[in-house]
Amino acid sequence: MTDRPVQPSFYQELVSRFSRDQVASLSAELAYFFLLSLFPFLIFLMTLIGYLPISSDFVLDFIRQYAPGETMRLIEETIRNIVDTQNGKLLSFGVIATLWSASNGINAIVRALNRAYDVNESRHFLIARLMAILLTFAMIFVIVVALLLPVFGREIGYFIFSTFGLSEMFLTVWNTLRWLVSATILCIVFTGLYFIAPNLRLKISEAYPGALFATVGWIVVSLAFSYYVGNFGHYSVMYGSLGGVIVLLIWFYLTGIIVVLGGEINAILYRRYHQIPS
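-> structure tokens emitted (278 positions)
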């Protein structure tokens, strides 16, 4: 009687897949596309907020929550320059450049997720590119909503506070909850990405575990890396004026690892639930 092979534990398989699916290399590719699309996206966003009830300072405060210190200085200088030279042509350029570079990043994520599920990309090139562009639009939309919610959330909180005569403790709790909405929206974005991107028919419930990991993991890694850069990692001493760019690339690299690992987690759970051998 032949013994059945012992199935590796979840964590053993995740570590094995990290090497097998070249997560580090794919994350480096994602970091490049993230960097390529960042500043066109900022051009688009800064031009767009002229039509929205938010200021560039509010956007900077929102980014500052997660961005490492030296990176934040680079982003802030760029945004200031964009605002000073803002015109209608920048919006058109920002839309085109953001869609093209960000959709390349989405395509890289699609390849990474297909590799995690061990499936080939059989969709037509135009269909795949259109899907990437639609996902890019979706991400832009939810980012704008995430920026708007704290603004309107504050006003809603004050309205409820004044109408019902609630204690100041209510405002404290409300302010905490409305910021959690941004994390919830981020989780929804990841869920949609993991659900749509792979060339495989999935259920929403099969995309959620990796999305939850990616949301919590990205926030924790971003805050931890920001603390490290601010207190220990003085990259400007080693790289000079390029220090901000180096920190930005490392941050995007870590982000890429989190995104790809979220897809790998979903793939492992999918194969185990459907009893597909690894």
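The chain has ten helices and no strands.
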